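Because discrete structure vocabularies remain unfamiliar, we first show an illustrative case, written as a sequence plus integers encoding its fold.
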Amino acid sequence: MTNGNKQPDPPKGRGSPKKTAGIKLKEKLLIGLVFDFKDLVFNGLVKGFFQEKRVKQLR
């Protein structure tokens, strides 16, 4: 009976770190996506700005 009592505990202990790791992974992915999106927007604005400058210089 002692083995029966001891076995359910480790899965609970192992399960919660997996959940937290999964949550942390999702957070990292979300943060990464946000930063990638910001970089894309920023790069797009910078490129657009320089393209406008070039067009104005050509005129």
Q: What stands out?
A: Residues 2-58 form one domain.
